[in-house]
Amino acid sequence: MARRTLDYLKRVRLWVFNDEILWEGLTEIERSRLDGLRTSGFIVLHLACFGAIFVGVSVTAVLTAALLYIVRMFFITAFYHRYFSHRAFKANRTAQLLMAFAGCTAGQRGPLWWAAHHREHHRFADTPGDPHSPNHHGMFYSHTLWFLTKGSFVPPGDRVRDWQRFAELQMLERLDWLPFAALGAACFAVGAYLETHYPELGTNGWQMLVWGFVISTVVLYHATYTINSLAHRFGTRRYDTPDSSRNNVWLAILTLGEGWHNNHHRFPSCAKHGIRWWEIDLGYLGLRGLAALGLIRDLKPASARTSRKSAGLPL
Asked: Whole domain around residue 43: which residue ranges?
């Protein structure tokens, strides 16, 4: 009994630190199965949204939820996607680490994991090798289930060799849940502070945790996932790309520019997804602001040759 307990604790420790040893030597059938711990956490987070029934609602809590949604969506589209996945601009090592940390607050794993799977998506877009194509795996699998499987827990490391040389990114990858948990704790702490010092705002720690952290996160999750599922099914195609990517204005608004998905598949390493003047791309506007402050530089334009090379596609 004691040995079994120790083995279980060891497994939990390896799981907490994202240790690849747990998933070595899996068969194809085992790779396709859902990971129990990760799936349970995902379900619990969704169920926690119903906590709003008990904690109530306030303008302060809703505004905090909206703000954290927008800010973290920017972290995903600008940092995880355009920087770590496609190197659409340049940044120094300090800014790079800060971007990685900020992205982790979205609760969508670490930047290396995210970038590796996204590069895999571009390499095999809408083929059986695509990790989340709705055309081959179904809408629900594409939207949610794919990242809960045991096979997707470990990133295809050969896709992110350019980032693996940074020890700080490797360490953050091991503890990608820590910034996310810290954000949740901060929401609760701020709510408790406001309840004590500004009671007229009508909020408290639990309310800020449920609205500012939990509900904001769940909405952020599913808005991000729509690009995998809906943006390969619904919308228009300006470019004849070898996949089913589509431009969708509603998804572009929801995701700060990610919805111009056909544009992106035509020019993967372009920092601007909204190519035409009327295509709203708030993520790019945010990057322009960071560039103006000198925090990043060299935003890449739409170049067919360099973009296809960045995505690992034939020129």
From this structure: 36-310
Q: What does the pLDDT average to over 165-177?
A: 95
Query: Count of domains in the chain?
Result: 1
User: Is 245 contained in some domain?
Assistant: yes
For residues 198 and 303, give the distance between their C-alpha atoms in angstroms, rounded to a whole number. Answer: 52
Residue 260's contacts (CB-CB under 8 Å, 6 or more residues apart) are 247, 252, 273, 274, 275, 279, 281
> Confidence class of residue 29 from pLDDT cuts 50, 70 and 90?
confident
Give CA–CA dist 194/200, Å, rounded: 9
Inter-CA distances, 189 with 205, 256, 310, Å: 6, 29, 42
Question: Mean pLDDT score of the chain, rounded to an integer?
Answer: 91
Residue at 93 is within a domain: yes
Count other Cβ atoms within 10 Å, centred on residue 314. 6
